[in-house]
Amino acid sequence: MSEQIDEQPALNRRLNGPLLTIFGLGTMVGAGIYVLIGELLLVSGSFAPWAFLLAAVVAAFTATSYGELASHYPKSAGEAVYVDRAFSKPLLTRLTGWGVVLTGLVSSGTLANGFAGYLAYFYPGAEGIAATGFILILGVIAAWGIGQTVWVAAIITLSSLFGLLAVLAMSGRYLANLPDVWPAMIPASGGAWLAITLGAFVAFYAFIGFEDMVNVAEETREPERVMAPAILIALSVAALLYVLVATVAVLANAELNLAGHSAPLAAMVSHTGTRWPAVIAVLSMLSVTNSALAQIVMVSRVIYGMAQEGKAPAVLAMIHPKRHTPMVSTVLTVLVIVLLATWFPLLTLAKATSFIILVIFALINVSLIRLKLTGRIRRRGVWKPVVGTALSLGLVGMSLI
Fold it and tell me: At a CB cut-off of 8 Å and minimum separation 6, what does 284 contact?
C-alpha cells in the first residue's frame, strides 16, 4: 500500500513567505470580525474589544509553538505529526488529526452560515441554498490547484482588509460617543472579567487560521525559514484590526442595536445613505469566502497527510495527476461541510470550533514541552508553551464553568 502512495504525484511548492502570510491572514480576517461581531456583543457587550485582546494573547503563545514545531517538522497534517513525534502514541495521533479535521469542518459550516447571513441582505430567505452552493463552489476552487487557490485568496484578502478599513474610516460619528461610552468599557468588576473571558472563548474563533498555515508546509518553499514569522505577522495584523473594529462596534451598538445582527458591519455604515452598506455586505461575503476556502484546503491536507502517515485510509492520499491536489480528501471535506452548514446554527458551530481547537492547542503546547525536555528540540523558551497550555485550558475551563 505504501508503495502505491509513494508513486502518487507530489504536492507543488508554490507558496513563498508573503503568499503564506496572506493565506493565513485571509483565513483569520473574515472568520470572526465579519461574522461574529454581532454574536460577541451579545456575550461581552461593551467589553468586546477586551475579549478580542484576551483571545489574541491566548493565540499568540500557541502561535509561537506552532512556528517552532513547523520549523522542525514541515509536514502536512502538522498537528498530528507533532503529537506523533512527541508521544509516539498512534491513537493519540489519530485523535489529534481527526480533531483538527473536525475543527475545520465545523468552522467551514460556521462560515457558510455567515455567508448566507450576508447574502440575506440582498435576497432574504435564500440562506439554505446559498450555504450549499457556497461550499460546492469553493470545493471546485480548492480542487483546482494550490497556486490558483492562494492567488484567489490573496485577492480576496486585500478586498477584506479594504472593507475593514472602510468601516473604520466611516465611523467618525460613532467615535464621538467615546467619551460617554468609555467608562462602561473599562472592566472594573469580576462580572466584567467573566464577560470578557466568555467573550474571548467566542472571539477565539476569529483567530483560528494561523494553525492552518502549517498544514500547507509541503506546498511552501523553505517552510523551515518562513513559517514562524509568517504566522506571527498574520496574527498580529488580525488582532489589531479586530480590536479596532470591535471598539467601533461597541460605540455604534447603542444606536444600531448590533448585538445578534447577521450583517453587523454593513449596518455600521448604513448611516452614510450611500451604496456603502451593500459594498460592505459584498466584501463581507468575499471575506467569509476566503476563510472557508482556506479551511477546506487545510482539512483536505490534514486528511491527506494522515493518510500518508498511515493514520487514515490510503485512498485519501490520492493526488490528482494534473491538478496536484488531494482530490478524494477534498471531495469528502466538501460533502461533510454541506451537511454541517445546513443542520446547525452559526453560534453553536463557532463555540464548538473554539472548544475543540483550544483542546488541540493545549495538546500541541504539551507536545512542544515534551520535545524540549527530551532534547529533540532545544530547551530555550520552554516557558512559552507552558503558558500557552495554561491559557488554552484556562479558557476551556472558564467556558465550561
Answer: 30, 34, 35, 118, 163, 263, 265, 266
What contacts 24+ positions apart, CB below 8 Å, involve 172-177?
173/271, 174/248, 174/251, 174/252, 174/255, 174/268, 175/248, 175/251, 177/251, 177/252, 177/254
Provide the residue type at 51 as one letter: A
2-400 topology per CATH: Amino acid/polyamine transporter I (1.20.1740)
Dist. CA 327–CA 139, nearest whole Å: 10
Count CA atoms closer than 13 A to 260's CA, side-chain side. 3
Q: What are phi and psi of 15, to 5 degrees?
A: -100, 135
Q: Which of 174-183, 277-286, 365-374 is the least confident region?
A: 277-286
Give, rounded to a whole angstrom, the gap between the first and last alpha carbons of the chain: 47
Band of residue 109 on the pLDDT scale cut at 50, 70, 90: confident
Contact 288, 35 (CB under 8 A): yes
Residues 121-153: pLDDT tens digits? 677 766 667 777 777 777 777 777 666 667 777
Beta strands in 209-291 (DSSP E): none
Q: Are 207 and 34 in contact (CB under 8 A)?
A: no
How many residues does this entry show for the chain? Answer: 401
Instruction: Give me 191's grid cell.
Output: 462580572
User: Within a 10 A sphere around the Cβ of 401, how many other Cβ atoms?
Assistant: 8
Cα–Cα nearest to 338, from 181, 121, 169, 138:
138
Torsion of CA 318, 323, 324, 328, to 10 degrees: -20
Instruction: Name the residue with cell 459594498.
Output: 279
**Residue whose cell numbers read 473554539:** 354
Helix-then-strand count for the chain, H and E: 17, 0
User: How is residue 32 annotated by DSSP?
Assistant: S
Burial (CB < 10 A; 0-12, 13-18, 19+), residue 147, is middle
H-helix segments, 73-189: 78-87, 90-119, 127-144, 146-169, 172-175, 178-185
How many CB atoms are closer than 10 A to CB 168? 16
